């Protein structure tokens, strides 16, 4: 396969525009470019998470996700192009079911905290939600396949579940369980019940 990047500093974007994969140029604040950037940031965020100690099955899954996010970015970079397959969404659904089945039911909202790897999974989750919003905004303006939106929605859910898994894995010795939000309403209700 030929090397696709022959030059990094092209200076063609100095006018505030950027090239898409089909050769067209759009402003750098175009909804498509924003969606591509959020997906790129999400992939970079997962790269930071992958630098942490992780259970082997979680690591393998996240490596696959990084490749799929690259496909998603490629699809976004070429209007009308399809690259991310529906099977990728099914793979996330299966991973969600598997990992969620091993977790206790939530008693209350949890904070994005615990082990470093769990906290980084929560950061990635919030970036995934932003990327999803960007894809939804783009889809309101231009025709898009459903798969990118569905994939990002499922991925954010999966990252929430994986954060819980990583707290229990406790590979840095600082976690072990979910960090529950201390609801003032719930505390008042519990006090009234006592």
TrEMBL record:
EC number of this enzyme: 2.5.1.-
Cobalamin adenosyltransferase-like domain segment(s): 8-165
GO molecular function: corrinoid adenosyltransferase activity
Entries under InterPro entries matching the protein: CblAdoTrfase-like, CblAdoTrfase-like_sf, PduO-typ
Stored Pfam families: Cob_adeno_trans
Keyword tags: ATP-binding, Cobalamin biosynthesis, Nucleotide-binding, Transferase
Annotated spans, Disordered: 1-26
Catalytic activity, as annotated: 2 cob(II)alamin + AH2 + 2 ATP = 2 adenosylcob(III)alamin + 2 triphosphate + A + 2 H(+)
Classification via Gene3D superfamilies: Cobalamin adenosyltransferase-like
UniProt-listed PANTHER family: CORRINOID ADENOSYLTRANSFERASE, CORRINOID ADENOSYLTRANSFERASE MMAB
Record-linked NCBIfam families: PduO_Nterm
Family, per entry: Belongs to the Cob(I)alamin adenosyltransferase family.
This protein's name: Cobalamin adenosyltransferase
Organism name: Pseudaquabacterium terrae
């Amino acid at each position: 396969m030929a090397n696709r990047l022959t030059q990094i500093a092209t200076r063609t974007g100095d006018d505030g525009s950027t090239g898409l994969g089909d050769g067209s140029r759009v402003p750098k604040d175009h909804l498509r470019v924003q969606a591509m950037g959020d997906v790129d940031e999400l992939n970079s965020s997962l790269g930071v998470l992958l630098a942490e100690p992780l259970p082997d099955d979680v690591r393998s899954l996240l490596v696959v996700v990084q490749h799929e996010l690259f496909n998603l970015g490629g699809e976004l970079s070429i209007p009308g192009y399809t690259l991310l397959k529906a099977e990728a969404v099914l793979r996330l659904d299966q991973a969600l079911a598997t990992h969620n089945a091993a977790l206790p039911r939530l008693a209350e909202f949890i904070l994005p905290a615990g082990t470093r790897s769990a906290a980084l999974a929560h950061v990635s989750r919030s970036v995934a939600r932003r990327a999803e919003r960007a894809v939804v905004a783009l889809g309101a303006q231009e025709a898009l396949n459903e798969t990118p939106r569905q994939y990002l929605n499922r991925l954010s859910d999966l990252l929430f579940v994986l954060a819980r898994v990583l707290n229990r894995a406790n590979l840095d010795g600082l976690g072990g369980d979910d960090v529950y939000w201390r609801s003032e309403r719930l505390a008042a209700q519990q006090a009234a019940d006592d």
